[in-house]
Design a protein that fits this description.
The complex is a heterodimer of chains A (about 140) and B (about 400). Chain A contains six helices and two strands. Chain A is an alpha+beta fold and about 140 residues long. Chain A is globular, with a radius of gyration of 14 Å. Classes of the chains: A alpha+beta (about 140), B alpha/beta (about 400).
């Protein structure tokens, strides 16, 4: 899985929307697989035109610090790519780090701020809310 | 004579560029764009004719009331209602159905009574009846559709029992664009003394409706799909049925007299229109209907049929598109899916080319479930669409297909 900085750097090289979307789709294809039995009512993120699932697990390291790992999937290619970006941004971080991330700035850098419109069909905001509420439970 | 050039020049939104292309708007089943004359009419209401209606003893209030009631008359003529008292203003078609479910249904549909709806219905003609199931113990029964996307009349017949208290069906499917046999539905219902509600949200736009001839009990439609403003819907409620209806919401306008111990109600339509109504929106809708009448609704429908036929041919030439009914049966609304791409993907990519369609369940989840899908792409036309719009749509879909291959 690529790191968010690498993704940002790669995106900056792409100067048209076709290539950007193709790259996003490619990121989605590189996602860890979410097993079918984890695609259930608990992991389903409502409010998206496509189907979206986000599953989180908490890992306690030897120093007893909590990290949250996210795995996700969607039946739409572009949305799956957006999930990959979210996972690069939020996964394997401590709960308070997750809550501190200002996603607006990052998506603006990507030129993807239109996906953050309040229009529910995009679903990206619902996914971010789900990630933050999962993190909130672990604070 | 229908002059598409002239029509297109009436709609200011067509001058816009969206993303990479000229605005190609094919999401008309969700809401239509507005002609300049309707926009100007709204401006005039607010600049020169605005006051609250019905109660004011001053020039502006009387003017506003006259315009508001003229709009009601225009709408009554549009659907051939015998009396403007049968025309009730609501905020949209959804509210109109909720009004019937509440004002008529909660009084006349009790525990164990049955409501028949079809698999084609929009959530707005499902959920208000679910309320009666949850709250009054009513039973919902679902009529199947046939392979052509039409309500199965034999199945409807077989579902009717002595307990059937309402049949609520769409005039035209918002997903498939199929026009339903509403005369047959009303005849069957009335032979069994059952009232019928027809959801004309799409039908009032793409088909004609004569409520008197069809003899429907309740007919609903919305202004914003009929080239009018948002925030105005219409309920036609037949006079004979109104006596069986309780008020919907309580407030100003809908009363005859209020004391500390009692309240009596105004006559219809005011009885069902509590509070300040959507004044400018009603006038705007009346004006939109005038605009339609000036062009000629038959002329508009002929043009839509021509574009619809053109679209059927062109869409079916595209590899990898699948349809949910034979597009030959669709009137201006086409649902399809693309092999290898989700509707969300399709809609996102073609939006980059300036083309607006809809992706999703179209508020018809039971229908989606019956097709075994979670969403579809839907392209829907209006009077201002032309062959070029369809060409642009098809080119963008072919591009999209390559993009995901």
């Amino acid at each position: 899985m690529e790191k968010i900085d690498e993704i940002l750097e790669n995106m900056e090289f792409l100067d048209n929307w076709e290539d950007k979307y193709k790259y996003i789709i490619e990121l989605g294809q590189g996602l860890d697989i979410l097993p079918d039995d984890l695609k259930n009512a608990q992991t389903k993120v409502n409010g998206c035109v496509s189907q979206v699932w986000l599953h989180s697990t908490v890992t306690d390291s030897t120093t007893n610090e909590k990290y949250i790992k996210f795995v996700g999937d969607s039946d739409a290619f572009i949305v799956k790519g957006l999930i990959a970006i979210l996972i690069a941004l939020y996964s394997d971080k401590k709960p308070d780090e997750i809550l501190d991330i200002k996603h607006e700035n990052i998506f603006a850098k990507f030129g993807l701020e239109s996906h953050l419109s309040p229009q529910r069909s995009n679903g990206l905001l619902s996914m971010i809310e789900r990630i933050k509420s999962d993190a909130m439970r672990e604070v | 004579m229908f002059d598409i050039k002239k029509i297109r020049s009436d709609f200011p939104f067509l001058n816009m560029k969206i993303n990479e292309g000229n605005a190609v708007y094919l999401d008309n089943a969700a809401s239509s764009q507005k002609p300049k004359t309707v926009i100007d009419r709204l401006t005039k209401v607010y600049e020169q004719e605005y006051a609250n209606v019905h109660r004011g003893i001053h020039h502006l209030s009387m003017k506003a009331t006259e315009n508001f009631e003229d709009a009601r008359n225009e709408i009554a003529r549009f659907i051939n209602s015998k009396s403007s008292e049968e025309i009730i203003f609501t905020k949209n078609a959804t509210e109109a159905i909720n009004l019937v479910a509440s004002s008529y249904g909660s009084v006349n549909i009790q525990n164990g009574d049955e409501i028949i709806i079809s698999m084609l219905e929009h959530h707005s003609n499902i959920v208000p009846w679910h309320f009666l199931r949850e709250r009054n113990g009513a039973v919902l029964k679902w009529v199947n559709i046939d392979d052509n996307g039409l309500i199965d009349i034999d199945h409807l017949n077989s579902l009717i029992t002595k307990k059937t208290k309402m049949i609520a069906m769409t005039h035209m499917s918002n997903v498939l664009g199929t026009v339903q046999p509403i005369r047959d539905i009303v005849n069957i219902a009335h032979n069994n003394d059952i009232p019928v509600l027809i959801d004309g949200t799409q039908g009032a736009v793409h088909d004609t409706i004569d409520v008197d001839e069809v003899d429907v009990d309740f007919y609903v439609f919305t202004g914003h799909k009929l080239y009018g403003p948002s925030g105005i819907g219409v309920l036609y409620a037949k006079k004979e049925r109104q006596k069986d209806m309780m008020p919907f919401q309580g407030g100003g306008e809908m009363i005859a007299e209020v004391t500390m111990d009692n309240v009596t109600y105004a006559d219809a339509p005011q009885k069902f229109e509590a509070g300040t109504p959507p004044i400018a929106q009603a006038v705007g809708l009346g004006h939109a209907i005038k605009y339609i009448n000036d062009i000629g609704i038959e002329e508009i429908h002929k043009h839509e049929a021509k574009i619809s036929d053109y679209a059927k041919g062109k869409l079916q030439e595209i590899d990898g598109l699948s349809f949910f009914v034979d597009p030959a049966h669709s009137k201006g609304i086409f649902s399809f899916n693309m092999n290898g791409a989700h509707p969300h993907d399709v809609s996102t990519i073609i939006d980059k080319k300036g083309i607006a369609i809809r992706a999703g369940t179209h508020c018809a989840e039971p229908l989606m479930q019956s097709f075994g899908v979670t969403s579809t792409c839907r392209a829907s036309i209006a009077m201002y669409n032309d062959e070029k719009d369809i060409d642009s749509l098809c080119e963008s879909l072919i591009y999209c297909r390559k993009f995901f291959s």
